[in-house]
Request: fold
Amino acid sequence: MYDLNQNFSRFPGGYLFAAVRQKKEEFQRSHPDADVISLGIGDVTKPLCPVVMKALEDAAAEMGDAATFRGYGPYEGYAFLREAIARVDFQQYGVKILPDEIFVGDGAKSDLAGITDLFSDRNRIAICEPTYPAYADSNVVGGRCGYFDEHTGRWTSVMYLDCTEDNGFVPEVPGMGASSPDIIYLCFPNNPTGVMITRSALQRWVNYALEKGAVILYDAAYNAFIETPDAPHTIYECAGAEQCAIELRSFSKTAGFTGMRLSYMVIPEALRCGGASLRNMWKRRLGARYNGAPYIIQRAGAAVYTPEGQKQTAQQVAEYKQNTKRIRAELEAMGYTAYGGTDAPYVWMKLPAGMKSWDFFDLLLTKAGVVGTPGVGFGADGEGFFRFTGFGTPERTEEALARIAKL
Amino acid sequence: MYDLNQNFSRFPGGYLFAAVRQKKEEFQRSHPDADVISLGIGDVTKPLCPVVMKALEDAAAEMGDAATFRGYGPYEGYAFLREAIARVDFQQYGVKILPDEIFVGDGAKSDLAGITDLFSDRNRIAICEPTYPAYADSNVVGGRCGYFDEHTGRWTSVMYLDCTEDNGFVPEVPGMGASSPDIIYLCFPNNPTGVMITRSALQRWVNYALEKGAVILYDAAYNAFIETPDAPHTIYECAGAEQCAIELRSFSKTAGFTGMRLSYMVIPEALRCGGASLRNMWKRRLGARYNGAPYIIQRAGAAVYTPEGQKQTAQQVAEYKQNTKRIRAELEAMGYTAYGGTDAPYVWMKLPAGMKSWDFFDLLLTKAGVVGTPGVGFGADGEGFFRFTGFGTPERTEEALARIAKL
Reply:
């Protein structure tokens, strides 16, 4: 008689963004004429830029001709893409990452889930709070989170790194005497708070990981939004990071690829645990569990790294950021406190004292027809906050802000 | 200090097809003028058919226009694709599978890996031997295989279902008194032997699973190649299968999608363990660990289910099967014994007595410049056999056969 992975029973309710979508759909069913504006899920709205479109069309055409047709590709991704990534995303920042240290995937969520395969179930994970839910969720299946305590809204076995107004939403390394985590999730520019980490603060985390024998999973999905001078564009700008960190990147927000599904991970050759190379383990895993991203999607991804592609995607990012800056400025003008929006597509709004974030979600949806994301969905520390994204059009963003002002 | 998943150290050497590719590449480097013909890895060579190309181009164009651009899609796949699958792949065989029981993925290898998440590590798996290596490999990471015994070429914790000439490469259910497995992998039409199972033999496996409380993972990736009358086109043609079986399908061989990455799984609503619905568990897993297949790839997949798509892909499959039939007929004319090739793109050749399959691989590569797949790569029972695929062009297949005849 077969039996099931009991860790599944530990999931508390549904996935945050599925819950948000469901509430929105229910409201639209009961109010078919309502004009709902979504500033909730972090999904892009701009079409693929011209140079990406051209690459996509050319690659599609190749698939229709026997002379240029492509079947199975390398599990780790095509060299043309990995070489472009190494050159543009790392060499220009003075960081040496080789194409053989880059692994193309079909999305950061898949990569985050897959990478947990490399680690034993005994490791203690540390996550920022508030945080993107997939870090903990991807570890629930492997049993690394313990139980979800409905009272605290936290997992019993997870170490939480509090991100609060007091520390500017950037956690410090645990002090002397504190127990140390084994796997540390960091995300900068941060989702959901929108803040960026400084080079020196990130170096302290790298030093801490090296000292404690921890590994950092560094989610840099919003990298393209960084504008603060001297902010680190990759964790490998920090000395020693190649010995303790895996960096995750996504094309979703950089190039509007949420519907295209493309990502990559950097697993440096120097990253070893005991004598074992994590890079080699990942290669073995790919052979057993993955067959690579679609060729045409990889070609579209490579176009992002051409000079034209860099210019066109940067223009899109700049336009989204105009929205986040407008959101933050308007919220502040209305008297709210708001964070982020400078180095990230997110604005983290502080709710009036005592207001619960799901209550504000309901209020905003039913009274203003605007969808955002309740802060508590990102963890207990997120209660009392609300996330807005800059991925709408300028017109719809202004309309949403006008409606919020009338609340 | 973090530690690693020690199960990785149990992998014996590299992945079979990676090893084959490497040997081929090494030979080509040292013999740059050699004209090597690959009948090894099961990769298609024909371009995408016209109706799929049209859908791909149209969907790509949608991504370049803000009015039709698609971002994140449903984790389980778009309804337009799941509805087409339910109608064409199941209803026409009198089987009722609902779109809500269909989950779109990016390849059978990914799906096979992902589905293991649902089961506890205590389950005993049963696999046919010889077999596609991914069934065992995807379970190694979770620790369900025990240790690889280099002497026997088998995993210590896996139950093997011998597929031999004596049973026509179709295993019978374990007899009374034999210990019973919890998770049973079956693949028909079979890779690597190319044989098909009868409806009554498959029903015996379904009855056995129901009686023992086992779950069957039924890999029907080569479904489109079935031509034997009255052979089951889906396991759900068997009474009770919806209570004990998950069926896996791939677009790779059906529609030449190896470079496109598209697949689906059927997890029936009636499939429950204790009170738990495996379908609901999978939905929860998708929320935590996957973001869906690319929109344009799903549109291309849906085109396969149009009347034109069915006709065009069937034509491609028929052309590949002409090759397998030629391979089998010619091998038999040369005096070899060969199996399969009727309901599958594979021919399973018996080697002369005492010949090892890697030795034949080397002989074939160096003397004839032809690449096949050594039988032992599919497990110990595969020793003494060799797999050829029908995915070459007719001209190259004939050329390879002429070279083999001269060996």
Remarks:
- Residues 307-333 of chain B form the longest helix (27 residues).
- Chain B has a mean pLDDT of 95.
- DSSP finds twelve helices and 17 strands in chain B.
- Residues 124 and 369 of chain B are 41 Å apart (CA to CA).
